[in-house]
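Dear Dr. H.,

I hope your travels went smoothly. While you were away I took the liberty of generating a structure for the chain from your last submission, since the lab meeting agenda had it listed for discussion. I wanted you to have the full record in hand beforehand rather than looking at slides cold. The sequence, exactly as received, is reproduced here:
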Amino acid sequence: MERLKRNDGDEREPLAVSRLLLDHVSEMDRSERMSQQWRASESQLEKLSLLADRWSSDEPLQYILNEAHFMGLKLQADPRALIPRPETEELVHALLDKIPLDVSEGLRFLDIGTGSGCIALAWKSRRPMDHVVGLDISEESLDQARMNAQNLRFNDVDWTCRDILMENPDWPLSPFDTVVSNPPYIPNNERETLADDVVNQEPEMALFVPDADPLLFYRRIVEGCFKEGWLRSGGWLGFECHRDFTEEVCGLFNDAYWRDVDRRKDLNGNWRMVFARLR
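The corresponding predicted structure, in token form, is as follows:
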């Protein structure tokens, strides 16, 4: 247990981590191990030792176990993409609630900055009739998203590599009914406030934005939706945001083009989500 302690960790964390590592190595849960009086073999002890060392070196547990969970889906996790967060689950649930229950026909759904594919795949799991597109600038992230889709047998999700900051008059061929994004939103000057296992392990390009322009991606996506035909009239746009910038994000929605602007808190009481509907 002593090997699992981190300088910046909660004192209760090593116990929780040790149980998860034991579950992983033994391929049993705690009750099964107790009922079967499980004893680790030499090879299992060696594997546990190596995993404990990785944890002590600030590697995220999801990367160590090579898995993460999101809205009931089991996803592959590794340094190619951000680890899915509970706040992002709240974003998807809130956006799903905005789609009327009587809308059963397939809609066009776009996830910008899809990373591991967690949002796109969660949406597909809840609305299998929809045409879902996951977009990212990183081919490495898209490879992970494709693998997750394959493992879940969601083979009809489209994965697109594109830099949304670059204008492309030929894309998309037709507007989407719903657009969602959890873009990079942490200013560079906040690096020192983040845990080591985040800032040193997760992909930098998915986390940070220039200090001088923290709304870079939000502004571009809003403009793309109403100026370049990314979103149809009446369609919803949903954002996950930095808790300090939701008011500024709301200010990007010009009343001439947008309505029903909705700012929401997450379960921790932080302002986290912004939604708006194109007129």
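Two observations you may find useful: The chain has a mean pLDDT of 93. DSSP finds ten helices and eleven strands in the chain.

With kind regards,
E. W.
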